[in-house]
Write a structure and sequence with these properties.
heterodimer, B: 83% helix, disordered C terminus
């Protein structure tokens, strides 16, 4: 969907912001560009829609070099969301969302319908929020509008630059969850920039860890944590290692299928097959039940036993040997 | 009280004509000044060469430091040298326009520069043409600041325009000069009071225009973050 081939960007001062980056964003996946500030992650993202132009190498979108495409046309088919400052404060919520559809000359009815559809999708009541101005919204609401706006013209590709960056931790968590739910329905190819490891692990199908303009590792969250490619990656993740390990391992492999645990269905706790060990641990802590039912797409597929979970956690943290 | 009514009875038409001249002079001055200063300010805000920006701003500031009376005299002399009319509305308007440029220019420049670059970038990133970025994003966002500059220029122009009576441009300055020459307070007031009222009314009207053009929520809370 998006290919970087030996892409470099040197700024006029001579600093090399991106150094020989080669990577491939697959259709429908969320690729997270992770790194500290100055790592070149935002620069890399902005080269996709030509807000910044590469000084070497090629970027292809849909097989065609972006430098050979008209930047205006290119940008209109790529959704773009940044931190909440990105909303136009002189426009209402509806007008903000309508920007790209209007640039594409959609009919008024079509735009109106789309605004309602998107607001509903991001959990804002259309009749209540359409006419508000960004200044009349909370941070979380603004960010929802920002996401809706990026999706307005239904672009196959969406670029997101720390879209949840300016939010308090609780709202941020909530928006991440909501976005994951929305995203699983709409199937977009997403390039997601963040400096937050936990956000990267949570949102990304794959993570590209950048440092000093160079790609350090491109892998699934699980592999990044379990099999760091070099010392930098190891050091970068070291600080939150325990938590990351539990976040990147899914419970699906340790679910006991079939018997949907009749005696324990009274407990309100529920797990999804793609929940992480950490989520499961949190749920387990809040219930006295020995088993928690597990669901996949709304259907029960089995149960997770407390003992099994704890052993697995101990194993993945490398604690099991001391037990024997 | 009686004296005033008598005076107005006698000179009402005169006052009206001079007020009309005054408004005419100021209105076209401001239209021309806005027509020059706003595009110039937009250009400067996008200009990469700092030296151009600095020199234009400096020129405008220097013009501003020349006393109004001296500027008017200077324009007349320059006009005489190059063979342009030295009496009437024409030289007066040149002087007034030069004087009105700075506040509008400076505010347009500041207004455009205070916009968060990220907002402009997101507009470009969404696929707006440069022209669309300017008219749909940059200008609406800097409008309150530009309008403040226009209001300052308006109030100044209305005041300074009274001096233009000296070079035969008419206006309320005529009445003031007449009062001065004949030492009659009636004429002085007949020129001064309408000029003051004009300034207040013009400022009020522009404030309303500004309010009408600014979205309700932006003016009050744009600076506060949640």
């Amino acid at each position: 969907m998006i290919q970087f081939e030996h892409v470099s960007k040197a700024f006029p001062g001579g600093t090399l912001a991106v150094d020989d980056l080669t990577l491939d964003v697959r259709p429908g996946e969320t690729l997270v560009l992770l790194g500290t500030s100055g790592s070149g992650k935002t620069t890399s993202m902005k080269m996709v829609n030509r807000l910044i132009e590469p000084t070497a190498g090629h970027i292809r979108v849909d097989g065609q070099d972006v430098m050979e495409q008209d930047p205006i046309t290119l940008r209109r088919k790529i959704g773009y969301a940044i931190q909440h400052i990105g909303l136009f404060t002189h426009m209402t919520v509806a007008q903000n969302i309508a920007v790209v559809p209007r640039l594409l000359h959609w009919s008024r009815e079509r735009i109106d319908d789309r605004i309602d559809e998107l607001l509903t999708m991001v959990g804002l009541k259309p009749q209540e929020f359409r006419r508000r101005y960004p200044a009349q919204l909370s941070g979380g609401q603004r960010q929802r509008v920002g996401v809706a706006r990026a999706l307005a013209a239904d672009p196959p590709i969406v670029l997101m630059d720390e879209p949840f960056g300016a939010l308090d931790p609780i709202t941020r968590e909530q928006l991440q969850d909501e976005f994951l739910a929305v995203e699983s329905e709409i199937q977009k190819t997403i390039v997601f920039v963040t400096h937050d490891v936990f956000e990267a692990v949570k949102m990304g199908d794959r993570i590209a860890l950048l440092d000093d303009g160079r790609l350090q590792q491109l892998d699934t969250p699980h592999n990044l944590v379990e099999r760091p490619a070099n010392e930098f990656v190891k050091a970068f993740l070291q600080h939150h290692h325990v938590q990351l390990k539990l976040m990147t391992r899914k419970i699906s492999t340790i679910v006991e299928e079939g018997n949907s645990a009749p005696e324990d269905t009274t407990s309100l706790a529920k797990l999804q097959a793609n929940d992480s060990l950490l989520t499961a641990l949190g749920k387990m802590k809040d219930t006295s039940a020995e088993r928690i039912p597990v669901f996949r797409q709304g259907r029960p597929i089995g149960t997770l036993a407390r003992q099994r979970l704890l052993t697995t956690i101990a194993e993945s943290l490398g604690l099991s040997e001391s037990q024997s | 009280m009686n004296e005033i009514t008598q005076f107005v009875d006698k000179h009402g038409y005169d006052i009206l004509m001079h007020t009309y001249q005054h408004v005419y002079l100021c209105f076209f001055t401001l239209v021309i000044a806005v027509g020059i200063a706003v595009p110039l300010g937009i250009f400067l805000a996008h200009c990469r060469w700092r030296s151009i920006v600095a020199s234009v701003m400096l020129t405008a500031s220097i013009i501003q430091t020349i006393p109004a009376l001296a500027l008017i005299a200077l324009i007349v002399v320059v006009c005489a040298l190059i063979g342009w009319p030295t009496i009437g509305t024409f030289p007066a308007m040149i002087a007034l326009v030069l004087y009105a440029l700075l506040p509008i220019l400076r505010n347009t420049y500041t207004g455009m520069r205070q916009i968060d670059p990220a907002v402009v970038e997101v507009a470009r990133g969404m696929g707006m043409q440069p022209r669309q970025v300017l008219f749909q994003v940059e200008l609406p966002l800097s409008l309150p600041v530009i309008m403040a500059g226009i209001r300052t220029a308006t109030v100044w122009t209305i005041g300074i325009a009274t001096l233009c009576a000296l070079i035969g441009a008419g206006g309320l300055g005529d009445l003031i000069m007449r009062g001065l020459r004949s030492i009659q307070i009636d004429y002085l007031l007949a020129g001064t009071i309408p000029a003051a009222i004009l300034a207040v009314v013009a400022d009020w009207i522009l404030a309303r225009v500004e309010q009408w053009l600014t979205p309700p929520a932006q003016s009050a809370t744009s600076l506060s973050e949640s």
